[in-house]
Amino acid sequence: MTGDYLEYQTFDSLQAFASSITSLLANRAVLEGLGVGDSSSSPTGALILKITGDTISRIATILFAHRMGQAIEPECKFYRLLADIFNDSAQFLDLFTPALPYLPKLGVIVSAGVLRSLCGVAANASKASLSAHFALTGNLAELNAKEASQETVVSLLGMLVGSLVVRMVQDKQVVLMLMVVLAGMHLTMNYHAVRAVRMRSLNRQRATLVFREWLDHGAVLTPAQVSQRESILWNGRGNLASKSGDYTGFCDFVTYGELRGWNPRGYHRYDFETSTYFMGIWHRGGYFYMRIALKEGTAIPLSAWFDAVNHAYHFDSALKDGLQSHYENEMPLGYVSEEQKETIFAAMTAAGWDLAANALETRLPVRVRLGDGRKGEPGSASRSLRLPLFQFTDVFSRRPSVRERPSPPQWPSGGET
Q1: Is residue 256 part of a domain?
Q2: Which domain, by its residues, includes 183?
Q3: Which tens digits make up the pLDDT trace of 301-322?
Q4: How far is the C-alpha of 66 from the C-alpha of 159, rounded, in Å?
Q5: CB 385: neighbour CB atoms within 10 A?
Q6: What distance in Å separates the CA atoms of residue 248 and residue 243, rounded to the nearest whole number?
Q7: Does one domain contain both 334 and 386?
Q8: Both 192 and 207 in a single domain?
């Protein structure tokens, strides 16, 4: 096991204990809402409520898994906490079911079911990723078996205490106050549990923290240091900033067609090309967007992300007069050669980072396949500058007419893979 397993499991057990009690209180409210103990309620009506809620929640499970499945593993800490936020929100909705008429009650039951479905997908997928992190020697089956046993014991204790609480607490206001306290404890314990995890894979936020520390101080952070700095709920989409913080934005991996065809009104656009990727930068005022389309043969886009962080870091100087002035007779401001990057990556490996795990791409990886006989360069109709391994283009983006609207490039044979 990794060194962070014990701390994580301690907080995880405490949150499971609190969750067991809140689930009993919520289930009692659901049973009351379905008519248990009310002679005037219809069993058929209760059955329809249950079937409708289950049906829609299962559809939500399929849609959420399809839409977010690829993103859960790189951001497993975020989705582990988000799952419990979904679960607690569903339990609070359950508390209102006894007081509602039939149709609003149906809406609440369906909403709570959808939230539980999202919780199930996010929790199961993120816990699988965390278990793989903890199993240093590949003993994943043993770890899961022991964790299931621990959860069973904790759940039993929670049910015993919860049974006493349910029997003693009947007043609606007291139940609501107790739910608030227990849910707060539940989320707090979950936050500390995922905060204790020291992931060795580099997602966008962790890679940005490591690269910024190297750019600022020439040092490489360890997984333990990054775990104390990274945000659990925010900054997971690829947020970047300049050295002073005056310029902020984000970066994403896209297809080549999305990179070339995206032209927001009023933004200055700058295009780069290296041997492994195409990059577009859109800038207006103190905000910017970056998009990267990776070329075929690029397995791990760590070098491309380093360049994105490096570009953003130097935007205080580079964007002051426009990027073009900084590319007239020199390499990009703050340019780091491939040899220097290899040195940095070697130091990161020595610090404990797993560079073989691709946690930077949060959707299905797409690569651009280049042909041998390409006749033109992207952006060749506008001002361009050829640098070693780089192409740079500065275009003031505008909304193109139907005739001018960019289309997928003709020169890559085979397109994107």
Answers
A1: yes
A2: 5-197
A3: 999 999 999 989 988 877 665 5
A4: 34
A5: 13
A6: 10
A7: yes
A8: no
